[in-house]
Amino acid sequence: MIDATCPLVTKVHLEAVKFAKKGYTIVLIGHKDHDEVIGTLGEAPQETVLVSTVEDVNRLEVKDPERVSFITQTTLSLDETKDIVDRLRERFPKIQGPAAQDICYATENRQLAVKAVIPLCQLLLVVGSQNSSNSRRLVEVCEKTGVPAYLIDDLREVKPEWLSGIQTVAVTAGASAPENLVQELIGSLQNSGFSALEEMEIKEEDVRFNLPSELGRTVQLQVVSRV
């Protein structure tokens, strides 16, 4: 059995354990029934309460307002999370949070990229699965500006009427969407008349994670056997 949990999610789990050991009420900002939220709640179920909106924070009751902490699901919208955290700080001035934000760097970068290209496009296509939280947030970020956006699994889900009268289409993808699906969609758009292609890099991603230790040992053994 290999633990292949994303290190950024593991970080949130460790924060939950740390705050629980200190006797804090843990406020988890996230979406109910999301797999990541279910896993995080499992670390300290008796000490953790889930909030998804500012209204949830307004109704929140804790046993000791002096000992409250918060953590977040890693795939949330930056804007949405900020409003909730601001309200938590208003209600509980001594609330403690993670040393660094919990939102995944890849999720954050993609949201920033969408905000940068929205003024330049008439339509946004997001490659990602329907149960992908970070992919859905990209659609929401765009729709809030009035620009239509659609979440698709692959090019087969693009409807011709979406492209009717559209001159400029932006394409992005969820953090774990396969690159080949993105390239196939771009190729299909080029074949449909969107011939001019411009790639925008808003922020270079240089974060690297080590393989799980079990896989690392396997790779080493394979290298030795080939030698």
Provide a descriptive summary of the structure in words:
With 227 residues, this protein is of the alpha/beta class. The protein folds into 2 domains: 7-91, Cobalt-precorrin-4 Transmethylase, domain 1 (3-Layer(aba) Sandwich); 105-191, Cobalt-precorrin-4 Transmethylase, domain 1. It has helices at residues 7-21, 35-41, 54-58, 78-91, 105-117, 133-143, 160-163, 179-191, 213-226; strands at residues 25-29, 48-51, 68-72, 123-127, 149-152, 169-173. The strands form 2 sheets. Strands 2-1-3 form a 3-stranded parallel beta sheet, with helices on both faces. A 3-stranded parallel beta sheet has the order 5-4-6. β1, α2 (35-41) and β2 (48-51) form a beta-alpha-beta unit. α1 (7-21) packs parallel to α2 and α5 packs parallel to α6 (133-143). The longest helix has 15 residues, at 7-21. The chain is globular, with a radius of gyration of 21 Å. The two termini are 27 Å apart.
